[in-house]
Write a structure and sequence with these properties.
alpha+beta; Arc Repressor Mutant, subunit A; Chorismate lyase; seven-stranded antiparallel sheet; two-stranded antiparallel sheet; 8 helices
């Protein structure tokens, strides 16, 4: 096992929420024993995590998870729940939950969901927060054939289970995630308000956006968009 494997082990635990900001990593001796590696290998692994801003040195406390860890995507939250059942990472909450049915005219959403401009879909919006600070606006859009199978999506309440699990159970069809795509654009005023960014009127504030579309073997099922506050550190999967 090399230093990259050791680094990936702790990176995964931080990303999944198993290690929270301020939690101490095992000592160098303990990591050496756990992975049967040399002290130099442990040092290189910890150096990688420090360079990524995931951990920091705290004197007698050793190496601890950094105060501002990664802000993950909605699709990564699905993976985290499948891994350990955690809906939220330590210190993470959400607010501003809204559910609405609207006619869709956004060209990217129409293309992703195979909708005609003006077709109706259910939109769910929520703001994710870390230690009370807004980090992400999450928007998910579902066409009617998805909502017919999972009517909870149209209810003005938080989902108890993820839509992909419910859809697969009820239809017998496997749900797959498409390629996540990131781009940068200017934030809308609604997004600035949700992220609590006090910008001068008519100013252009760039934000990172990550999108993904879910499918079964016949149809597009849902379109998710994560809009990140400036300065957020977002992991990019390989």
């Amino acid at each position: 096992m090399g230093y990259a494997d050791v680094a990936d082990h702790f990176r995964t635990r931080i990303k999944s929420g198993e290690l929270a900001p301020g939690d101490a990593l095992p000592s160098v001796a303990e990591i050496r024993e756990q992975f049967d590696v040399a002290a130099k290998t442990v040092s290189r692994a910890l150096g990688v995590l420090k360079s990524e801003g995931l951990v920091t040195s705290r004197g007698s406390l050793g190496t601890v998870v950094a105060k501002s860890p990664l802000v993950i995507t909605g699709a990564d939250r699905l993976d985290r729940m499948a891994r350990n059942g955690l809906r939220y990472a330590p210190g993470e909450t959400s607010s501003g939950h809204r559910v609405m049915t609207r006619s869709i005219y956004d060209a990217d959403v129409c293309k992703a969901l195979d909708l005609e401009p003006g077709d109706e879909a259910v939109i769910r919006i929520r703001v994710f927060r870390q230690e009370g600070r807004p980090t992400t606006v999450g928007v998910s859009v579902y066409p009617h054939h998805t909502v017919n199978a999972v009517p909870e999506l149209a209810e003005d309440s938080r989902m108890v289970r993820q839509f992909d699990e419910l859809y697969a159970e009820r239809t017998g069809r496997e749900v797959t995630k498409g390629q996540r795509v990131g781009h940068v654009r200017h934030a809308s005023q609604d997004e600035l308000d949700a992220l609590e960014i006090d910008a001068p009127p008519h100013s252009a504030v760039p934000v990172m956006v990550v999108t993904v579309t879910f499918h079964d073997d016949e149809n597009a099922l849902g379109y998710w968009e994560d809009v990140y506050a400036p300065g957020s550190r977002v992991p990019i999967s390989g």
